[in-house]
Structure formats: C-alpha cells, structure tokens
Amino acid sequence: MSFARFLFAPVMLVALAAALPARADVDIQEVTTPGGIEVWLVEEHSLPFVALELRFRGGTSLDAEGKDGAISLMTALLEEGNGDMDSRAFARAAEEIAAEFSYQASDDAVSVSARFLTETRDEAIDLLRGSIVQPAFNPPDIERVRAQIVSILQSSLKDPDEIVRNAFAELVFGDHPYGGPEDGTIDSVTSLTREDIQAAHKAVFARDRVYVSAVGDITADEVAALVDDLLGDLPATGAPLPGPADTNMPGGVKVIDYETPQSAVIFGQPGIERDDPDFFAAYILNHIIGGGGFSSRLMTEVRQKRGLTYGVYSYLSLKDNAQTWLGSVSSANDRVAEAIEVIRDQWSLIREEGVTAEELEDAKTYITGAYPLRFDGNGPIADIAVGMQVDGLPRDYIATRNDKMNAVTLEDVNRVAREWLDPEKLTFVVVGQPEGLDSTIN
Questions:
Q1: Whole-number pLDDT of residue 6
Q2: Contact 431/256 with Cβ under 8 angstroms?
Q3: Where would a tag sit more exposed on the chain, N or C end, judged by fewer CB atoms within 10 A?
Q4: β-strands 100-105, 4-7 pairing
Q5: pLDDT tens for residues 377-392?
C-alpha cells in the first residue's frame, strides 16, 4: 500500500489526453537546462496539451530512523496549500485553468505528475512550483491527512493481503528500508511532528536526484526554461540514498496465523538485474511461468486443472537496491498447501525441462503486440520516458525493445530457466490458517 493524493482536472483535459493515438514511434530529445537539469522531451504539437513527469529518487526509503511514514505523509500534504493558499484555494485555482496534478510516494521514488493546457502553462507551473518548493504543511491539514492515513493503516491490519506483503518484506529485507511498511505504522505516523514532515521534504526534493520528462505542445527551449523555473529553487542535494539490500530468501514456508477462510501467499526467489544480458530472456520466461494471465503455466496448473485459486501470477521486481522474482496466490485454507506444492513443482519442472517453442512464440507475440498499446497519450508516454531515465535505458529503447524480445531464442530461455530458477530458495509467506502446512522458517 502506498498513500497517494490526486487532484483531478475537468473533463476537457482528460478528453485531450485520451484523444492522442497509441503509438510506439516516439522521438525523444535530450535537453539540458541552463541550470544543469536533464529533460527528456517528446514534442507533440497536434493538441494544446502538455504532460510533465518528475521523479525524485529515494522515496519512502529515505524515512529517517524512527520516522517511518514521514515521506508518505509529506507527499500526501503537497496539494494542501502553499504560501497563503490553502488546500481549497489550490484545488480551485487548478480547476479554473483545467490543470491536473498528482503526487505519489513509493519505496524508491516520489513521483509528481502534471497535465496542463498550453495557454495556461505559466499558471500551472506557478501552482506546481508552490506545491513542490513551498508547501505550507499547515497543522490543521497535517492532522486531517494524518487521520486519513491512520484510518487506512487500521484497515490494513485486518487485510490478509496487506499483512502478507508486510511480512514478506520484513522477512526478505530485514533492517533495510525495504523491510518496513511504506506508509509507516499507526504509532510512527501518530508521533510524527511538523518538523519531521519538513525534514522529509528536505530529504526528498533536491536537484541531485530528479528525473524529468515532458510530452506535448512545448519546444526544447520552452521546456528548459520551464524546468529551471520550476525546480531551480530546490537545494542541490538531499538525504543520502540507501545502499543495496541483502535479501534473505532461505527457501521454505513461513506461516502467520490469522483467522480467515482463505490464505494469502507471497512467494519469491532472488531476481535479475535490469541491465543483465539475460534480462529479456528472463522477462519472457516469467511471462510463460506466471506473467501471461490465463495462458501462463501457473494459471493453467493451479487454477484451470485443479481449481485451487481464482488467480496466481509472478513478476520480476526491480527495485533500485534489490532484484527479486515474486509471485502471489490466494487459496482456501484446506487447499493452499496443494497450491504451493504445484507452484514448487512447476518451478522445478521448468528449470529441468524448459519451455516449448509454442510457449515462446505465444509469449513473444503477446509481449511485442501489447507494447505499442502503452503509448496511448501524452501522460503515459511521459511516464514511460521518465521511467526509462531512472532505469538507465537509452533514448532509442522504445524503438529497439521489441527487436530485443524477438531476438531471444528457445535456447536462451531454457538456459536462463536452468541458471536462474532456484527451487531451493523459493520462499513462501502464508497468512491464514492453512491445513497441512507448517512453518519451516522462524
């Protein structure tokens, strides 16, 4: 769970975003502002609309010791006013110019999204700058938003899916920031002061960790001036970024007793780096194992053949400081042990025997065919572009990505299955009252 706040613009702005065609022939320019900030720009002048994405590396992992949840609370307060403007005035001003802003904290980044019309660009940037550079953090707003977060945290204490996510993170990442809940605990959030929130803001918002992309009706010169105007008053550096996490995946099962008719399960093993030469083969392999919906091996074996669950999936988790190969399943308490056994069996079977040529071709067809559909407007393109920067991908990645997928051979995928799938380290955390399943991990 990550607490995010959104300010929605009128229908006109949403309609403009939806009107843009899906495409993958994206020409990204690299622009360096006079202030030294790198921006990736895609000019699209067919509509008078701009999408701007900012990503500040660090995220909730920058919570100071004993201040869990400070980054999340701070992020939720960014639209609650700045200077002499309170939250209602901020919302009203954005609505009057058909601008949309959203702010979200995750474990690796604080993301800021803006959508605005060309004719009101200056007014939109003034509003956005105030929320980023000079948020008010008024005490009444702090208490109101804090109460909202505490209410969500109280509900999460009764949610098996949330319990298992937190328990898995704690087991795997331990004392690393990834090991704690992104939004903190009821006690930690309740104890946060205004000074703690101001310190969290200072830790995150700095020029040494920002990535910027813009897509729409704006030129290179215009975006350079806009970004310096928006971010130029931020400090040069923020809090030190966390180091690599030592992942603890010993293999086996950890059961957390919780009264519920259906057990929630997260499982995983060590993963692969984004820049590893085998990444594309691993991506396709994961699609075949559990990332391909109803066509995946796990869905076929666990749901369709045995009826043990409504859904099971796997994915490659690529955090800044840890790479894991994860999955999730839920099943009735009297059937979850069998579901786990089937998942283990498939992990071993695919490692030993590999996948078929038909599975490979079906996966490639889906993965490459679905890719252009991601580029269905200025906003999604801006989000993809800033994500590419964070991941260290080249600007031509969009044009070459499908070629890299298609170049993967059956021999590549099956070699990666042998080398990367590790049944001995496949670790399960189960929340519920599973029958016939005992903990093997303390």
A1: 43
A2: yes
A3: C
A4: antiparallel
A5: 999 999 999 999 999 9
220-231 helix and 121-133 helix, angle to the nearest 10 degrees: 30
Tell me what pLDDT residue 442 has. Answer: 87
pLDDT tens, 137-146? 999 999 999 9
Residue 265's closest CA among 328, 321, 309?
A: 328
| Mean pLDDT calculated for residue range 418-425 | 98
What is the 3-state secondary structure of the chain? CCCEEEECCCHHHHHHHHHCCCCCCCCCEEEECCCCCEEEEEECCCCCEEEEEEEEECHHHHCCCCCCCHHHHHHHCCCCEECCEEHHHHHHHHHHCCCEEEEEECCCEEEEEEEEEHHHHHHHHHHHHHHHHCECCCHHHHHHHHHHHHHHHHHHCCCHHHHHHHHHHHHHHCCCHHHCCCCCCHHHHHHCCHHHHHHHHHHHCCHHHEEEEEEECCCHHHHHHHHHHHHCCCCCCCCCCCCCCCCCCCCEEEEEECCCCEEEEEEEEECCCCCCCCHHHHHHHHHHHHHCHHHCHHHHHHHHCCCCCCCEEEEEEECCCCEEEEEEEEEECCCHHHHHHHHHHHHHHHHHHCCCHHHHHHHHHHHHHHHHHHCCCHHHHHHHHHHHHHHCCCCCHHHHHHHHHHCCCHHHHHHHHHHHCCHHHCEEEEEECCCCCCCCCC
> What does the buried/exposed string (b/e) look like for 169-195 if buried means 16 or more CB atoms within 10 Å of the residue's CB?
bbbbbeebbbbbbbbbbeebbeebeee
Q: How far is CA 110 from CA 76, 208, 209, 351, in A?
A: 11, 14, 10, 37
Digit-coded pLDDT (tens) for 271-318 = 999 999 999 999 999 999 999 999 999 999 999 999 999 999 999 999
Residue linked to tokens 């990444």: 279
Q: Give tens-digit pLDDT for 88-124.
A: 999 999 999 999 999 999 999 999 999 999 999 999 9
